[in-house]
Amino acid sequence: MKVFFIGVILTGVLFLNACVSQPAPLRTKYTMKSDGAVPESQKNLMITNAELHFTVFPKQKSISGKSILTLISSKQRSEIGIDLDSLFKIDAIKINDTPLDQSMYSNPEGLLKISLPTPISGEVVLTIEYSGKPRVAVNAPWDGGFVWSKTSQGKDWIATAVQGEGCDLFWPCIDYPVGEPKNLSMHITVPKDLFAAANGVLTNITDQGQTKTYHWQANSVQNTYGVALNIGPYEIIETTYQSIYGNTIPVYFYHLPESKEKAQELTKELLEITHFFEKFVGPYPFAKDKIGVVETPHLGMEHQTINAYGNHYKKDKYGFDWLLHHEFAHEWFANQLTNENADHMWLHEGFGAYLQPLYAQYLHGDYVYMAYMHSKRLGVRNSFPIVGNKTLSVEEVYQKETGPGGDIYSKASWVLHTLRNLIGDEHFFAASTELVYGRPDPQPGNFSPVIANTQDFLKIVNRVTGQDYTWFFDVYLYQASLPKVVKEQSEGRVLLSWQIENDKYFPMPLDISLNGKVLTLDLSTQVNIEVGPFDKLIIDPSSKVLKEETYVNEYQEFMEEARTLK
Q: Which range is the signal sequence, renumbered to this chain (predicted)?
C-alpha cells in the first residue's frame, strides 16, 4: 500500500520482523524484492498478453494457476526468465504448445529459468501451470501475499496485496515496470457462494454448479503489482460518472452486505473525488474499464480499476476519507504514469500524497491546506536523497538503511508544494498533466499509460515554464539535506543568505514579512536588511518554501526521545 505513514512503517525493522514469521528458506531474497536490476534472462523481453487462470481453494488456502503469456523478444535468446514464487510447484510448461521436459526449467529462488528447445526471437507463447499454497501476508498490505480472512458473518473473504514484493507472489510475471502486460484477461474460479472482483471489465460468469468462474478483461496496459484477486460474498453498487471530458464511465463498488449504507455514501464521495482529479490532473485514465473499489480485509492498495479499500468508512479530520482518496490518486500516479524504476517512486507517492492537502484546500481553503502540509512537514527526515540516481528495488527505497523511506511521501509533498509556489499554478498543473499522460492535451482515447522518471519531469517543467529548473531538482531531489536560511543579525541590520550542501547554485526567491509588509528577496547573493530594535522580521511568512527549520528538528528529537523512553 502506498500511503505516507505506511511508507514510514515499512522500514527495515518491519521487514525484518516479517521475515522471521516464516522459515528463512521460503523467503528467498529474489522473491521478496520487487523491481531493481533486470536479470539477463528478462532483458529485451516484454509481455503483450497475459491470460491468467486461477482456481482458489479457501479451505486449503491454496490455488492452482495457468498462465498463458505472449512474449516478444527483441533479440534471439535460448533462455527465458519469469518471476514466480518458488513456493509453487510447477506442474507443466509449454512453449508454443510444445511441452517441456522438467529438466529444461528450474526455479530454486523465484526466477523461473526456462531453456528453449531452439533459440527464438520475436513472438513466443509461454504456458505455465502451477499450484500450491501462496505466501500468506503476515501484515497486509505492508507484508505482501494472500489474505485469507472471514467476514463478520463467517464467509470467506480473500484478497491479494503485493506492492512491496511484486506480482510473482501469485502469478508468473516480469516483476518490473517494463513487464507491464499490454493486455490482461483473468479467469477466477471460486466457490459458488463467493464473488471474484478483479481488474478490468467483467465479461461473463460461468456456473459449474459448486463453483463459478468470473471472466475479466482489462482494456489497458496493466500495472504488474496492480493485478489483484478480491473474493467474498460481495454485493455491488453500480452507477456512472459523467466525466468533465464528456464521456460516461461505469462505477462499481464491491462491498460486504453489512456495509451497504456506508458504501453508498462512500460511492458518492468517490464521484466527487473523481471530479477533483479530472479538474486538476486530467481524464480518468481507464474509462474503457471502470472506476472500481472493493472492500478488503486489509487497509488498501492501488490495484488498477479495482482499488482495495479497508478503512472502515472513516472520514479524517479534514472531512474526507483519506485512504480512498490516496489509493484512487494512484490511478493517475502509478497506474497511468508508472515510474521507470523504484528509485523514482516519489512520482507515485509524492504526487499521491500531495493530492490529499490539495483536496483539503479544494474543499475548505488555504487554512486547512497549510494545516495538512504542516503535519507532513513534521515527518520529513532527510536521511537519503529522494532520488538516488541508481537502480533500486522497492525494498531498498523503503528501508531506512538504504533509501528515503517516508520522505517519498512527506518530503516529496513539500517539494511539490515549493515548486507550485515557485512556478505558479498554471505551469505546475500543466507540467503535472503532461507528466501523467505524456502529452499536454489529454482527451479520452488519445493517450495510453506511460513510463517516466524524474528527469522526464524536469524536462517538462523546463519546457512549460521556459526556464531551467535543474538547480531546484538538484537541491531538493538529488541530495538529502535541506536548504538553510542563514540569518546574521547585528545592530541595525540583518544579513540573509542561503546555505546549500556542496555550495550548489540555488536562486530560490524568499518572502519576508517586515512589520507586516511582505517583500520578496532575491537570495542568489546575500541580502542586507535594515531593521530597528522593535522591528518584527518573519522569514517565509506563508511557508512557501521547504527549508531547514530549527523548531522542526527540535520537535523531531523530542519525539524520538519520547519513543525511546516508552
A: 1-23
Distance, in Å, from the CA atom of 357 to the CA atom of 375, rounded to the nearest integer, reads 10
Whether the full predicted model's pTM is greater than 0.90, yes or no, is: yes
Q: Where do the DSSP E strands lie in 151-284?
A: 156-161, 183-191, 195-197, 201-207, 211-218, 230-232, 235-242, 248-255
DSSP state of 170: T
- pLDDT tens string, the chain, 566 residues long: the values are 544 333 333 333 333 333 333 343 467 889 999 999 999 999 999 999 999 999 999 999 999 999 999 999 999 999 999 999 999 999 999 999 999 999 999 999 999 999 999 999 999 999 999 999 999 998 899 999 999 999 999 999 999 999 999 999 999 999 999 999 999 999 999 999 999 999 999 999 999 999 999 999 999 999 999 999 999 999 999 999 999 999 999 999 999 999 999 999 999 999 999 999 999 999 999 999 999 999 999 999 999 999 999 999 999 999 999 999 999 999 999 999 999 999 999 999 999 999 999 999 999 999 999 999 999 999 999 999 999 999 999 999 999 899 999 999 999 999 999 999 999 999 999 999 999 999 999 999 999 999 999 999 999 999 999 999 999 999 999 999 999 999 998 888 999 999 999 999 999 999 999 999 999 999 988 999 999 988 999 999 999 999 999 999 999 999 988 888 87
Question: Do 211 and 53 meet the contact criterion of CB atoms below 8 Å apart?
Answer: no
> For residues 32 and 162, what is the distance between their CA atoms, to the nearest angstrom?
10
